[in-house]
Write a structure and sequence with these properties.
Elements (H helix, E strand, L loop, with lengths): L2 E4 L2 E4 L4 E7 L8 E7 L6 E7 L4 E3 L7 E6 L4 E6 L8 E9 L2 E4 L3 E6 L1
Parallel strand pairs: 2-11
Antiparallel strand pairs: 1-3, 3-8, 4-5, 4-9, 5-6, 7-8, 9-10, 9-11
Length: about 110
């Protein structure tokens, strides 16, 4: 299984970005898909996850600003990030869980300037 995240970049506070994560196989094969981030000097943390039951959950700091979506035909998941804040800066990683196995893609850097 391969995951490839893209879409990071430099944006001003208040701006928006859309991250994409392309899967090497159908996203129906996974129990949970998620986005994590790691800020400089901090541990990796969950940003959002989407279960096979169709439920999306969000970390409190991003609720109301970020949205998880999927495109089954493209085997791709997205994270739309609005009203970005400097504290959203970090490397964002795509994650997928299948039968208790975790898969990670290389991260994509998001930098939010104040």
């Amino acid at each position: 299984v391969q995951l490839q995240a893209s879409g990071g970049g430099l944006v001003q506070a208040g701006g928006s970005l859309r991250l994409s994560c392309a899967f090497s196989e159908t996203i129906y094969a996974f129990d949970v898909m998620g986005w994590y981030r790691q800020a400089p000097g901090k541990q990796r943390e969950l940003v959002s996850k989407f279960t096979s039951a169709g439920r999306a959950d969000y970390a409190d700091p991003v609720k109301g600003r970020f949205a998880f979506s999927t495109d089954v035909a493209k085997n791709t998941v997205y994270l739309v990030m609005n009203r970005l804040k400097p504290e959203d800066t970090g490397v964002y990683y795509c994650n997928a869980q299948q039968n208790s196995r975790n898969y990670w893609g290389p991260g994509t850097l998001v930098t939010v300037s104040s």
